[in-house]
Amino acid sequence: MTSSALRRLLLFLAAFSVAWPAGIAQGQGDGARVDVLIRDVKSPDYEKAREAEGELRKFPRERARIVAGLIDALRTGEWNRCAGDMRDGIAHTLIDLKAKEAVVPLLELVKSGRSIEHECSE
Q1: 94 contact partners, CB below 8 Å, separation of at least 6
Q2: pTM score of the predicted model
Q3: Cβ–Cβ < 8 Å for 38, 66
Q4: What are the pLDDT digits (tens) for 21-60?
Q5: Cα–Cα distance for residue pair 67/101, rounded to 1 Å
Q6: How far apart are CA 17 and CA 22, in angstroms?
Q7: First vs last Cα of the chain: how many Å apart?
Q8: pLDDT, tens digit (0-9, with 9 covering 90-100), for 71-89
Q9: In angstroms, rounded to a whole number, what is the distance separating the alpha carbons of residues 120 and 99?
């Protein structure tokens, strides 16, 4: 191996050794952020919950956890206002995520009589 090729290899390895752990840390950071957002979706504070629901769409790698958290929020969530809007938003996010596993919980929601209609004019 020539000295020029060796230098390029060493530069690549040095850059990779810095970038790779940063990527791992970012992935771990995403998981922690998703946990917080899922908790916030269940918050009774409508604004906080709505913002969290919108943010969850930015983490497609965490799809399974997001879908499970949204289904749980759909079943148990109680918001201080605009509950129908929250349920509608969650349903649309589940649709965007192509969450077939949410079909039964969505049908249960419809059968329960809980509102999925817009209640707020925001």
Answers
A1: 67, 70, 71, 74, 102, 106
A2: 0.71
A3: yes
A4: 444 434 557 889 999 999 999 999 999 999 999 999 899 8
A5: 8
A6: 9
A7: 65
A8: 999 998 889 998 999 999 9
A9: 26
**pLDDT score of 60:** 87
- Scanning 42-82, the segments in alpha helix (DSSP H) are 46-56, 63-76
Structure tokens at 83: 């509950």
Q: Quote the CA–CA distance of 17 and 114 in Å, as a whole number.
A: 52
The Cα diameter of the chain in Å comes to 74
pLDDT value of residue 121: 60
Domain residue ranges in the chain: 3-112
Which residues, other chains included, contact 72 with Cβ-Cβ below 8 Å and sequence gap of 6+?
42
Say which residue the tokens 């629901």 belong to: 53
Token code pair at residue 86: 């929250």
Contact 59, 96 (CB under 8 A): no
Unique residue bearing structure tokens 């969450």? 99
pLDDT-based confidence at 63, cuts 50/70/90? very high
